[in-house]
Amino acid sequence: MTVYIVNPSHVSFGIGVITPRWLYVLAAATPDSAGVPRLIDETLESFDTKVIVAGDVVGIGIHTGNALRGYEIGVAARAAGAYVVFGGIHASLYPDEARELGGAHTVVTGDGDRAWPEVIRDCAAGIPRVLYEGGRLEGDTFLAGRWDLLPAGRYMWASVQTVRGCPKHCSFCSVWRTDGQRPRARHVDHVLDEVVDLRRRGFRFIALADDNFYPVTLEDLRMAARRKDPGQLERLQAIRDERFALMEGLARLPEDTVLFTQITMEAAEDPEFLDAMRRAHIRGALVGVEAVTPEGLKDVYKDFNDSGDALVERLKRFRHHGIHVLGSFIFGLPSDRASTFDATLSVAQRSGVTFAQFVMLTPYPGTLDFAAWEKSLGADPPRIGGVPISRHWLIPQSARPKVYMDHPVMSPDEIRERTQAVWDQFYSLPNIWARSRGSVSKLKARLAFLLISKIYRQMYANTGIATDSARVSRSARWARLMAIPCRRLFAGRPMPDLRIDRPVVESSAPRTLRMASSPPSPRVNVGR
Ligand code: SF4
After folding, report:
1. Which residue in 9, 73, 301, 311 has its CB near the most CB atoms, within 10 A?
2. 172 CA distance to ligand 1 centroid (A)?
3. What is the tens place of the pLDDT at every residue in 106-124?
4. 224, 281 in Cβ contact below 8 A?
């Protein structure tokens, strides 16, 4: 029996930007009795399902974007006589679909780390159940990845998770509903062990693949103090203390380490946190800006963000503290107008973000937007090739629309063309070159910056937005070619003897209780 764990993708680049961490975590969860699992990442190359034989176990993890390719693999694996197991966000939301269209014998919902060994044992015994409920694991039980199984020289960035869950409730995002709103942080020592392991293997660039690295804001603490809720204040302060302890540990990594994460914009108001990030080698962060107008922010339930010039100033603050920003913007919100595209480009350029992504609003299952949109379509939604658009992920890639939600004043083509134009302008050669001056100093580094910017654009803009299939495959080919020299830029020297001291994680209870009993201005400086 061979165990395959598959990350499906309809497009392959030969080189991956970030390691799909979940493959390596499930490999760690695979029982020894099943042998060493075969990890298949189709973003590197497509999977030849002919190698599957009867009795094998094929685990396929899907999100909505790659569900259709996942189902193709599942059907082929079942036809070959293998046990087919689906997991991931999409399978958790639509377990029946994975059975009906993907040939699944069984589906694992929620966090798969603990359920996976049981699934393997049941398959080996020929008695898999139809459903395994993984639930939400506590942070101290998250597994480290089996990085000894990484193929050499195929990924630019490694990935480590430090916290799961996000307390916000953005309307376009499913994270807070699938991973929950209570942050579940991993033990600091476990994160550091894994990061050190990856540095020993030669990864200098590591993504902290978290839902939200900044789960407690200063405003959260102030609100808990105002409400005179000592229990909540203590919980929040403990989470904040743990973040600082983690960053103190990360600060002991070799100087040339580069970490990247995702945070909310509120971190700009927290200079102590930003300075700790910089010391911890966190050089960049994806920040969900989403919209540049107050109306747009209201559309996505993100009115904790700023708009206009205040937004520009807030984003600049990250750079002042040494954190590069990958700004994420959404187009196609109901309040967007033709002028919104230029205004967004202007904010992206004036605010000094180093990279930007401009995505079109897409109703993804599990989100509030999807629920409202699906309801608005009624009992008989429009169809494409017989597939209702409320199941857009089942429409073949080449026929899949790029914009789904009706817009009050713009056509889907107008939104798509204007979005593409913003990508083109932000990533034009003169604009990238100008940005490189503010980001790096040496000529060689500026050329590297240019290459990375271009490859980012090819991988994420042209393959995602273009409707013309020739343009999509040209972009994929170009990205494939450029990914090889680009990966070399990220490679580090293996450091097999690396060791770092561990910070002492201080209990926050006495301090927060003190704060709760005398709350006029909550002390958020944890005083490390
Ligand atoms: S978009 Fe970001 S901040 Fe909003 S709910 Fe999702 S993870 Fe949290």
Report:
1. 73
2. 9
3. 999 999 989 999 999 999 9
4. no
Cα separation of 42 and 86, whole Å?
16
Q: How many Cβ atoms are within 10 Å of 127's Cβ, its own excluded?
A: 8
Amino acid letter at 43?
T
- Choose the weakest-confidence range: 196-210, 296-310, 341-355: 296-310
pLDDT average, residue stretch 305-330: 91
Query: Tokens 């290459």 — which residue?
Result: 451
Using CA atoms, how far apart are residues 171 and 181, in angstroms rounded to an integer? 14
Whether 365 has a pLDDT exceeding 60, the answer reads yes
Tell me the Ramachandran region of residue 364: left when phi exceeds 0, alpha when psi lies from -120 to 50, beta otherwise.
beta
Q: How far apart are alpha carbons 334 and 264 in whole angstroms?
A: 22
Specify the pLDDT at position 462. 55
Residue with tokens 């169809």: 383
- Both structure tokens of 159: 């990935």
Quote the mean pLDDT of the chain.
89
Eight-state DSSP code of residue 491: B
Phi, psi of 47 (to 5 degrees): -90, 125
Average pLDDT (282-307) is: 87
276: which strand partners?
none
Q: Count of CB atoms within 10 A of residue 419's CB?
A: 24
Which of the four pLDDT bands, split at 50, 70 and 90, describes residue 445? confident
- Identity (one letter) of the amino acid at 123? C
The separation between the first and the last C-alpha atoms of the chain, rounded to the nearest angstrom, is 52
User: How far is it, in rounded angstroms, from Cα 197 to Cα 191?
Assistant: 10
Q: Which two tokens stand for residue 503?
A: 């910070």
List the residue whose alpha carbon is closest to atom 6 of ligand 1.
Answer: 173
* Look-up of token digits 């979005």: 419
Q: Determine the distance separating the centroid of ligand 1 and the alpha carbon of 212, expressed in angstroms.
A: 7
Ligand 1 atom index nearest CA of 174? 6
